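By way of example, we now present a protein record of this kind:
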Amino acid sequence: MTISIFIDGSAWNVLCNQEIDLNAELPPDKFSIFSTNEVNIEIDATPDAGKDGVSKIKYKRYIAKAFEDRQIPPDSPFGFNTGPGPQRFSPFNQGTFQSDQHREWYARPENKKYGKVNPATGLAKHEADASLAVHAFESIILTNDKEPGPLKRSIKEGGKVVLLSTFERKSISLWDYISAALK
């Protein structure tokens, strides 16, 4: 059985900037890497250049290569078309059934407050974070998001969320860093 790891868009930035080889750092025979539909929507909406004019092409290529190399499946619950805009659900035979624990977590009022919709993605402010936070009770979440919201609530409730803000590949392996952060 492999260890499940979900990667947030902000964590992809850290991994890309440090040129982390996921196959070497988190070998496929020991680790399964996932992404939620909402994170994929954010990644797909990433422009070729940031607001500061800095190119995002390297970031986008890094993620595309990782998805191809690792065959990273999008994790989304089975559901029906939600109309125009990004689809949060997958059709029959492609989506997963949402567990009772996940449904209960999403049903709580504090986990429904997402904020304004981003016109570039069609997602609300913390919607992608909520899609990750619900998985933190059975999987590891890698992020660099320090804002209050679903991921912070997940940490307080015992979720396995690892902030990569102090990770330096030169001094420690990615798995050693993750392991130390979870202790």
